């Protein structure tokens, strides 16, 4: 399953005003989701009873009508005995898809809260808005909103082949797709062509948008595209990549996991290609 591809999921509604009821507490410690001794997302009462010390909390929304709040802990905080904080990357498949999707939203809100406690211009404390997801500096009279970093990711195909790349930080044997952040003044299409030219040195045609995916590490928006190979030989940018090569769809190496948009693009192309055979 590709998580977050159509986020927010059915049943979840972001809100700053919550209904009555015991809220689930989506707390984050060093960017990781805090779980109780049973490996579940606790309620706020359970967290307080266990002695979890939080440094900031805000309404998040409702999941199936149940209120949810988000919180963050400073890195020096200790967790209650038996409790843990785990990366969302390692919780795919372990938590309910709805809970995990809400946690993904919460992680981005928690990151925003923890990194904007003070104004980046004057250094004065900020105050959370009661009307929208933002904070305000009363001194500068400046409203600050959660930053989202757009990033394009492109599946390049040539007949039965797709171009896969490998970054040095990837697990051994894993290959992914060409991807990169959108720079100031760029359109998504311009960014895609620039990243492809820079990283692998080829030209593309028929660039098409497929889908987008919020990616909470910490706050990216992945924009998935496909493109047809047009010309050029692969020239690997070794400052970014370890390897890049063509692979036949019937002989792929290890590819990204099912929860990623990269895998969605690959699976989608393979299904389409097999239908045309």
Give an overview in words.
The protein is 20% helix and 33% strand. The model has no long low-confidence stretch (mean pLDDT 94). The protein has 4 helices and 15 strands. With 277 residues, the protein is α+β, with helices and mostly antiparallel strands. The chain is globular, with a radius of gyration of 21 Å. It has 2 domains: 12-115, Nucleoside Triphosphate Pyrophosphohydrolase (Alpha-Beta Complex); 149-276, Nucleoside Triphosphate Pyrophosphohydrolase (Alpha-Beta Complex).
Summed up:
The chain has 4 helices and 15 strands. With 277 residues, it is of the alpha+beta class.
Largest sheet, strands/sense/barrel: 6 strands, mixed
Full CATH superfamily name of the largest domain: Nucleoside Triphosphate Pyrophosphohydrolase
In the predicted model, the low-confidence regions spanning at least 5 consecutive residues are: none
Counting H and I runs of at least 4 residues, what is the number of helices? 4
Q: Using DSSP, what is the number of strands?
A: 15
Strand order of the largest sheet: 1-4-5-2-3-6
**CATH fold group of the largest domain:** Nucleoside Triphosphate Pyrophosphohydrolase
Report the end-to-end length measured between terminal Cα atoms: 25 Å
Mean pLDDT: 94
Which band does the percent of strand residues land in?
25-35%
The count of domains is 2
What structural class should be given to the helix and strand makeup? alpha+beta
> Shape from CA axes?
globular
Rg over CA atoms = 21 Å
Helix content: 10-25%
CATH class of the largest domain: Alpha Beta
Q: What is the ordering of alpha helices and beta strands?
A: EEEHEEEHEEEEEEHEEEH
The CATH architecture of the largest domain can be given as Alpha-Beta Complex
């Amino acid at each position: 399953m590709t998580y977050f591809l159509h986020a927010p999921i059915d049943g979840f509604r972001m809100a700053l005003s919550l209904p009555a009821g015991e809220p689930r507490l989506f707390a984050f410690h060093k960017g990781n989701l805090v779980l109780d001794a049973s490996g579940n997302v606790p309620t706020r009462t359970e967290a307080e009873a266990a002695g979890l010390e939080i440094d900031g909390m805000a309404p998040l929304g409702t999941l199936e009508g149940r209120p949810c709040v988000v919180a963050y802990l400073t890195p020096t905080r200790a967790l209650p005995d038996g409790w843990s904080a785990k990366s969302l990357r390692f919780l795919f498949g372990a938590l309910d898809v709805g809970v995990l999707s809400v946690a993904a939203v919460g992680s981005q809100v928690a990151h925003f809260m923890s990194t904007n406690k003070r104004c980046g211009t004057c250094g004065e404390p900020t105050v959370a808005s009661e009307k929208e997801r933002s904070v305000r500096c009363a001194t500068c009279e400046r409203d600050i909103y959660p930053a989202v970093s757009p990033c394009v990711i492109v599946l390049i195909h040539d007949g039965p082949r797709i171009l896969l790349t490998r970054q040095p930080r990837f697990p051994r044997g894993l290959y992914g797709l060409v991807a990169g952040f959108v720079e100031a003044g760029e359109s998504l299409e311009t960014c895609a062509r620039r990243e492809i030219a820079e990283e692998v040195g080829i030209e593309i045609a028929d660039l098409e948008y497929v889908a987008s995916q919020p990616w909470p590490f910490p706050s990216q928006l992945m924009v998935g595209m496909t493109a047809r190979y047009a010309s050029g030989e692969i020239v690997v940018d070794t400052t970014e990549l370890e390897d890049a090569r063509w692979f036949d769809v019937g002989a792929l190496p290890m590819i990204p996991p099912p929860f990623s948009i990269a895998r969605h693009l690959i699976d989608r192309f393979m299904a389409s290609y097999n239908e045309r055979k």
